[in-house]
Amino acid sequence: MHRVYLSPGMFGFAELGAFGYFAHLRSALLDELKYLGLDAEVHVVDVPPTASIRRRAARLAEAVAETSGPHDDIHLVGHSTGGLDARLVASPSARLPTGPHTRDWIPRLRSVTTMNTPHYGTPLASFFATKAGQQMLYAVSAFTFVALTLSAPPLTVASALVLGVGRMDKAFGLEVDMLGRLTESLLGVLEPAKSREVRAYLDAIKGDQGAVIQLTPEAMDLFQAGVEDRAGVRYQCVVGAAPPPTALGLAKHALSPWRMLSHALFTTLYGITARYDDTYPCAAAVLAPSTERLLDEGIGRLPGARSNDGVVPVLSQVWGDVVWAGHADHLDVLGHFHGPLAGSSIEEIAHSDWLTSGAQFDRADFAAMTQSVVRGMLL
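Request: output the structure for the sequence above.
Response:
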């Protein structure tokens, strides 16, 4: 039995209000494994969204211990921060707050796949660590959930929220509590039961933001020094690059007020993530020639230091073998892109885009990516 464990990122959740963060990816991976004639199960791990990487990794280790059998092959797949959870769990140097036998399954670990993961940190985390950034993180998390579940939230409230986020980045003086009130107004469009569940998730973000600080480029410099790869385990990665926002890109969405608004939020996030510091660059010191070739082929060029997916710099996403690289924003790779998604084992999964990035990631790209991930983990 092959058991695949999915660990979500900082904006992530296992299931919230009947909406599955990993619904598309879980289905696609399971379909591919079954197509290859393999007995498999794909598990979604519910980790604290912004808790420290060590706490998140401990929950991942416990989930595997609770659900795997003594003869199962284990594969860890982490999106964004979830990729760091997987690396820490797998590391021989890890010291996790768990019981003595929680990682007894480690000898059966076959692969670690990281997707759009900030291995060298992200400037966005540095901003989220500020007082204004903490409120922005809360607002963007709320916006993410509402956008994915409702497809097009009420424009009046959503427009004010996006404008507020943009002003906070540029220090125009919008009060932090004003952004908080706008966030509450946006959450007010949800049904009462769903709203309570989402608010509990957002309260967890407010209550523990350990991962926010740990994802800064400075903190990830220490993570890289102390977290070793495990011998005999295959490490591979998915790398996504979104096109830089332009006035022309915004004009393309002029007929859709919601997509224009979504693109405006993406523009703000992209701009923060594109910030560069020579002292702590979000990239490996040197890329292998084979890695440079794969990035060049997949993206159409070798990405620069400022290129990103709206949340994570492209060069920060590289760890192990690159099994897929292409045009995609941060949540496209999970199946949250614009357009239908048919042919899944889960019939007609509700499909919504997260941000309008202009990456043009589509069903064919998603299928190629998931196929590459599965074929890679089985090598």
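The longest strand covers residues 234-241.
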